[in-house]
Design brief:
48% strand; six-stranded antiparallel sheet; 11 strands; 130 residues; mainly beta; single chain; globular
């Protein structure tokens, strides 16, 4: 099971948990959880006017062996208007635009989509229940 919690944070409400969303999916092959502005395909969705987040921005996908991976999907623009960072324990890494990274089995962490133009972010915590 992969559990996600998401908060959309602006400078005005940094530290607030209002508007927190949650989603989960079993660790079955090809299970998918998406984050973005398109509510028709994303289980976790951001405000419509947050254009630094693509219609479908992040995808969490379960592989055949029950492990999950995180992908930053390429949008319609050649260059992104955000940055994506992944933190697992003390380890922080930037995710490249269009890149994919495996998530630790039975681990937890946070993915931050940071707007490059304004002090706002989408913070997605994850927990993979082994």
């Amino acid at each position: 099971m992969l559990e996600l919690t998401m908060a959309a944070v602006t400078a005005a409400d940094a530290g607030a948990t209002a508007g927190m969303q949650m989603a989960d999916a079993p660790s079955d092959p090809d299970a998918v959880l998406r984050v973005g502005r398109d509510r028709s395909v994303c289980r976790l969705s951001t405000p419509d006017d947050w254009l630094f987040v693509s219609r479908v921005h992040l995808e969490f996908r379960c592989g055949a062996d029950g492990t999950w991976q995180l992908s930053w999907l390429r949008g319609s623009q050649p260059d992104p208007s955000s940055e994506v960072r992944l933190t697992i324990g003390e380890h922080l890494q930037s995710l490249p635009y269009g890149g994919t990274v495996p998530l630790p089995r039975g681990g937890s962490g946070e993915v931050v989509v940071q707007d490059r133009a304004e002090p706002r972010s989408v913070n997605v915590g994850f927990y993979h229940e082994a």
